[in-house]
Amino acid sequence: MRRIHILCVEDEPEVLEAVVRDLAPFEEVFPIEATATADEARRVVRDVILPRGELGLAICDHILPGEDGVSFMVHLHAQEATRATRKVLLTAQAGLQATIVAVNQAALSHYLAKPWNPDELVAVTRRLLTDYVLETQTNLYPFLSLLEADRLTERIRSGPLPGDE
Amino acid sequence: MSIPIRPLDRIREALQSIPEAQSEVRDFVTGDVLLREGDNPGTISLIIRGEIELLKHAEDGDEYPLGTLRPGQLLGLLSLSSGNASFFTARAASEGTLLTMPDDRFVELLHNRIDFHQVVTPLLLGNLVDRYRRVVRLHLEVAELTRDLNAEKRQLQAAIDELEETRNRLVQQEKMATLGQLTAGIAHEINNPIASLSRAADLLHPQWHKVFGEGIERGLTPMFRQAFELGVTREPLQTEIQRQRTAELARLFPDLPRPLVRTLAQVNPESFAELRSAMQRVPESVRLSLLSQWAATFEAGVLVRNVRVAAERIGGIVGSLKSYSRQDKADEDAVDLRQGINDTLVLFGYVLKKFILVVDLPELPPVRCRPGEINQVWTNLILNACEAMGDTGTLWVCCGVRPPDQVWVRIQDSGPGVPRELREKIFESHFTTKQIACARGSGLGLGLAIARGIVEKHGGRITVSDAPEGGAIFTIFLPTGAAPD
To answer: Is residue B130, in this structure, part of any structural domain at all?
Structure first.
């Protein structure tokens, strides 16, 4: 089965660990990849994630060594394979200008300020992944236990029954 | 050669002797209005005696003097020649006498009577010459006034510039002073929680060992003790290596949940081998739960380590903040410049992140200076360099000794450099190349002016040049205050 991945980009190892730790409950269904730079993230999306599945959610810091997070998100949004990917900025430092670019050119889905509240991070992840699977998946049953079940069952109920033509 | 003008009473007699002129003598007293602005006089008058002021009414109702007519001059000449209404008012400034004749008479006689012509022509010429003289004099006066005005304007501009410079300096000082107070307050407030954080992390460490000491089922205490110890001493792996190891482990143990695999991937290979063989010795039914417990203990160690590292880092930043914005009044101090440079690099780490930073700061003799002000110099130069480089580049920061009694600090970037013709200008107030809309930076064009002011106040100098490979080099020389050998 092609799995839907979560990608985290953050250059501070301890902070990256913390994000991954907070999202660990999702990993049962959504494998998490963690990278320290936008450059590494590009390679991981190309060589690791897309060959095996798709990218459902990208959570990026803005200030990174080399290419910044917003520019990486704009790159993701420009690629066909990652256009539908939900994009979250998790940052202590993104000026108005960068945020405007993120919203307008990368279709930023959510902005989380550091230090984040883990419950909020989990809730945002759950909501955005639900949006993503509703938009891209036909079989929603594998996600019922982890994502927003009411929205998923609503869709399943209103859709055709298996075997319907 | 000049045209002879006859004495005035002779002219008067000559004119009065021509009856067709219909001339009449008219006396006036001070204040009489002899001609009103906007009227058409219909007469021309020769002033025999007395003085007449010419006035122009402005829109605001004020009167502006245009000049004075004296004996021998003609009143009504302009209206006569142009046919227009008078554009000034003539008012007697003293008592006197006029000889007045109707316009049409005057013109006709001028054309047809040679004796009238002979009398009047020199008079007309004289009037014109007078008026021309007056115009020339006025021009000279205007030129003189303009010159004075310009000189005053320049003085004023210089005064304004100076005031502005002073104001900028004061604002800057005020800003730094406020920042100093603020950071002192913040540092004080933050130091307490930092202390409590790092003490907590320190204490958790032995505390956990005590917990294990009291025994954990199956006699596996040493193994768990080791798990915690490994966690506490673990350095984060590079994400690439972490990914490789996780992938390897996932291949070896396809049934383990991914978060567990990720954690185990952080354990060094020797310890992991030990763990594996230990796991072989426990019954298979409890293996997974034991392994999870082991990983959780390792994670607990990692968390304790992360708390400690974070507390240390906050402490470092607060320290930098405190020494960066040090409040030094008039007193100079013997200072190691490298401290301030390092503080600046720490505090502006978020700006510097996207550039390659090359720092080469060998030991320097102390320099007598006000560190708070000198830090402003590093800040302005470093931020300018970043601004110049845009999104990528390399920043070099180095220093050295220049015998006998100077030290230098060099800040070099890989940006576009400074064109030769701008090298003096960039140090002037309000010279800026930054776009107003740039995301960061005030763009007020004060940075280098302030930097130069501070350096010069410390008896040093600042220079700019271009690196052979492109990019700007700013070099600051400061005296060490040591007596030259």
So the answer is: no
